[in-house]
Amino acid sequence: MIMDPEVLGYYEQGGERTRLRQGRNRLEYWRTRDVLCRVLPPTPARVLDVGGGTGAHAEWLADDGYEVELIDPVPLHVREASALPGVSARLGDARDLPAPDGGADAALLLGPLYHLPERADRVRALSEAKRAVRPGGLVVAAFISRFAAVHDGVYRGFLLDEEQRAADYRGLETGVMISLRPGGFRGYFHQPDEILGEFADAGLARPHRYGLEGAFWLYGDVDDWLDDDERRELLLDAARRLESEPSLLGVSAHVLAVATV
Questions:
Q1: Do residues 40 and 58 touch, judged by C-beta distance below 8 A?
Q2: What is the spatial distance between Cα 136 and Cα 45, in angstroms, rounded to a whole number?
Q3: Helix, strand, coil distribution of the chain in percent, nearest 5
Q4: Contacts of residue 155, Cβ cutoff 8 Å, sequence gap at least 6
Q5: Measuring CA to CA, which of 43, 154, 174, 222 is 20 to 30 A from 119?
Q6: Could you read off the pLDDT of 68-109 as tens digits, one per residue?
Q7: Cα(165)–Cα(153) distance, rounded to whole angstroms?
C-alpha cells in the first residue's frame, strides 16, 4: 500500500473526527446521506465503505441495519472506526481491495478518488470496487468539483494570497489542487464530464451524477439553515430538486456518481 506522505500527514491530524459534523461541511454530510438513503439496496445488505475515514457514514449505515466493512489506508482512521458498533474496519488501499469478488451489495468510494492524481489509479480503484460488488449491486463514488478551490478561496479569503491564488488557477487547468497552508489539502478535482469517462474505462455503466451542495455551500448563512431542523429540511429539499441539473453540477463542491454493476 503506497500513500502520499503529505496526504497521510493531513489525515493524521485527526480532522476527520469532526469535519462532517460542524459548520457548512454538514451540508456535504446530510446530502450524501440523503442520496445514499435513496439509492442503496434495502437492509440487510453488505456495504464496503472504501476510504471511509473515521466512519462518519459507516456509523449511521450500521445503525440503520447495514453490514458495514470500512477499508482505509490511515491507521488512525481504522482504529477509530473499529470502535463503532456494527462496523468492522481494516487497513487497505482502494486500488487493491482486500475483498472477495462479488461479496458486497454496494461499494462506496467517498474519498479515495480525489487523492489519486493519476487517472490510471482512479480507474483502477473504480475497477476494484466493481470487482468487489455482486452483479446488480452499486458502485458509489464522490468527486470534488474542479471549481471548488476557487469558489472556496473567495468564500474564505484564500484567494487574496498570491501564491495560493496561482496554485488554484493552475488547478483549474490540471485538476491537481494543492493548499499551500501548513497541513493543507492535496488532491485531484474533477470536471463533471471526466467522471463519465473514468466510469466507462472501469467497465461500469454510465453513472447518475448528483451535485451534493449546489450553490448553497457558498451562502454566508448556510450554518443558520443547518442549525435549525425545519430550515435544514427545506434546504435539503431545495438541493434535491437541483441535484442532477447538468448546468449546476460543477457549482457543487462535491459530485456523487452512482452506477449499477
A1: no
A2: 13
A3: 50, 20, 30
A4: 218
A5: 154
A6: 999 999 999 999 999 999 999 999 999 999 999 999 999 999
A7: 8
